[in-house]
Amino acid sequence: MSKQPRDDGNAAIPVLGFRPNRGHQVPFTVGASNTSPQFSDSIRVVTLFSTQDAFIETGDASVTASNVTSHFLPADIPYDISLGDEVVATENDKFVAVIGSTSDGKLYISERE
Fold first, then answer.
1. For labeling, which of 13, 21, 42, 46 is most exposed (least CB within 10 Å)?
2. Res 1: pLDDT
3. pLDDT band at 53 (very low <50, low <70, confident <90, very high)
4. d(CA 50, CA 23)
5. 10 Å Cβ neighbour count for 12?
6. Contact (Cβ atoms closer than 8 angstroms) between residue 36 and residue 59
7. Residue 99 and residue 88: Cα distance in Å, rounded?
């Protein structure tokens, strides 16, 4: 039986906990920054929170973000994103790249398990 919280219809609500000691802070400017160290193979979901509007990409160690083609992440709104297929965890994206839209800021990343 699932230990997950349940909704009013008694259906399990999928909730992932925070992985202990695996929060990341990535300062960014109008130049791109990458997360380091990389996420472990078992991590398939991360929560992103940015202090300023930003653009992000996920990928391998060479991933970069662009303020033209990357995904927009508005400031002050947490987002959960998938890093890849749960069946082939070793092929998951291991890094997040971030670039600021107009101001210096900080991207907070929480690994979920």
1. 21
2. 40
3. very high
4. 13
5. 12
6. no
7. 28
The residues, any chain, with a CB within 8 Å of residue 7's CB and separated by 6 or more, are: 13
Q: Residue 96: what residue type?
A: V
The ranges assigned to domains in the chain are 18-112
Domain 18-112 belongs in CATH node 2.60.40: no
What span, in angstroms and rounded, lies between the C-alpha atoms of 2 and 22?
A: 25
Q: How many helices (H) and strands (E) does the chain have?
A: 0, 8
Q: Between these two residues, 106 and 38, which has the higher pLDDT value?
A: 106
Amino acid at 29: T
What pLDDT, on the 0 to 100 scale, is given for residue 72?
Answer: 93
Full DSSP string of 76-95: T--EEEE-S-SSSGGGS--E
Q: What tokens does 38 get?
A: 């990389």
State the pTM of this model: 0.77
CA distances for 93 relative to 12, 18, 33, angstroms: 27, 18, 16
